């Protein structure tokens, strides 16, 4: 796989500009600038300082409580046998079981060494992992926009950096938090498709963009056609909005904890679950996902 930005990040050359003097530019989220060389130690320290800063914020406590409540509910569903899931974990105390069972996947963090928003989001992720005692190695991170220096930083911190672009198609086998801050709809839609059953969806706790906001901001026809999996669950998923202080509006706006209760899913017609077709997005003009390099 190519490590570079691939499709949607590469801005087109403007007409009339020569090849040599105007190399391709990579568009990053506003306020983000690509660095050439990364000082790993300095970057890790900056992230740890941001963690310390966030830890003292009231809203951060509310995030931890809200995520913890949703995670506990998901774990309880597994304990009660509501979901088919492999739980061959050692039993060394209630907290031990919980930590070992929980996984986390983080997509779309962005270039956190140069982008302040992404750095705050990474700091919040670390606080959430800490609050649930999830081992850093049990948190997988992936963004095609990561530079090789950023991947080194994440590994240095103990996180697992995925090497393949899953396009969000990550199958859950145990309770899993998906941390997907301001990711494109296609990434969420792919994730839902991959786990499209009344057994798998209840294992997922998504910390990310509100599905209700996506529905309200997208033309009805496009939402139903291109993002059919989000469109089918939006009415039956549980969404708890997460607080966001005004000074961090660009960082944590429009986020929620999203969960799927079996009871609610079972209200959907049985046909909902039959033969889910893999999303294609061939006619979606502003697709906010970097796809796998199919020519590899
Ligand atoms: C709108 S940006 C959000 C960046 C950052 N979280 C923020 O809020 O500023 C969407 C992010 O999704 C990432 N992304 C696109 N395709 C992806 C994929 N297949 N897997 C993981 N991340 C992906 C992009 O590289 C980009 O960093």
Bound molecules: S-adenosylmethionine
Q: Per DSSP, what share of the residues sits in E-state strands of 2 or more residues?
A: 5-15%
Describe the main β-sheet briefly. 7 strands, mixed
Strand-pairing-aware structural class: alpha/beta
The end-to-end span amounts to: 7 Å
Description of the structure:
This protein has one domain: Rossmann fold (3-Layer(aba) Sandwich), CATH 3.40.50. Helices cover 39% and strands 10% of the residues. It has helices spanning 6-9, 40-55, 58-79, 94-101, 116-131, 148-157, 185-194, 211-217, 220-226, 228-233, 249-252, 262-265, and strands spanning 103-107, 139-142, 160-161, 176-180, 204-209, 238-241, 255-259. The longest helix has 22 residues, at 58-79. Mean pLDDT is 84; it is low at 1-27 and 86-99. It binds S-adenosylmethionine. Belongs to the SRR1 family. It comes from Sphaeramia orbicularis.
Question: Can you describe this structure in just a few lines?
Answer:
Helix content is 39%, strand content 10%.
How would you summarize the topology of this molecule?
Layout: H1 6-9, H2 40-55, H3 58-79, H4 94-101, E1 103-107, H5 116-131, E2 139-142, H6 148-157, E3 160-161, E4 176-180, H7 185-194, E5 204-209, H8 211-217, H9 220-226, H10 228-233, E6 238-241, H11 249-252, E7 255-259, H12 262-265
Helix pairs in contact: 2-5, 2-6, 3-5
Bound molecules: S-adenosylmethionine.
S-adenosylmethionine is lined by residues 29, 107-110, 117-118, 121, 142-145, 165, 167, 181-184, 187, 289-290.
């Amino acid at each position: 796989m190519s490590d570079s930005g691939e499709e949607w990040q590469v801005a087109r050359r403007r007409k009339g500009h020569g090849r040599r003097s105007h190399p391709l530019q990579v568009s990053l989220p506003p306020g983000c600038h690509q660095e050439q060389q990364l000082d790993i130690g300095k970057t890790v320290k900056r992230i740890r300082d941001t963690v310390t800063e966030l830890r003292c914020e009231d809203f951060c406590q509310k995030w931890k409580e809200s995520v913890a409540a949703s995670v506990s509910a998901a774990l309880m569903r597994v304990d009660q046998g509501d979901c088919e899931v492999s739980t061959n974990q050692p039993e060394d105390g209630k907290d031990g079981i919980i930590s070992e069972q929980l996984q986390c996947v983080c997509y779309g963090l962005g270039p956190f060494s140069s982008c302040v928003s992404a750095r705050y989001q990474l700091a919040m992720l670390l606080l959430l992992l800490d609050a649930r005692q999830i081992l850093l190695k049990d948190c997988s991170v992936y963004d095609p926009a990561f530079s090789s220096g950023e991947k080194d930083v994440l590994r240095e911190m103990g996180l697992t950096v995925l090497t393949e672009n899953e396009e969000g198609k990550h199958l859950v086998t145990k309770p899993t938090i998906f941390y997907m801050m301001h990711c494109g709809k296609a990434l969420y839609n792919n994730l839902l498709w991959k786990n499209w059953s009344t057994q798998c969806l209840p294992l997922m706790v998504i910390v990310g963009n509100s599905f209700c906001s996506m529905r309200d901001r997208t033309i009805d026809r496009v939402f139903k056609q291109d993002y059919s999996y989000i469109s089918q669950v939006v009415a039956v998923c549980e969404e708890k909005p997460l607080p966001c202080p005004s000074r961090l509006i660009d960082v944590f706006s429009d986020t929620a904890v999203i969960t799927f209760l079996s009871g609610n899913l079972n209200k959907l017609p049985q046909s909902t679950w039959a033969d889910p077709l893999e999303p294609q997005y061939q006619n979606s003009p502003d697709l906010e996902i970097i796809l796998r390099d199919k020519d590899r």
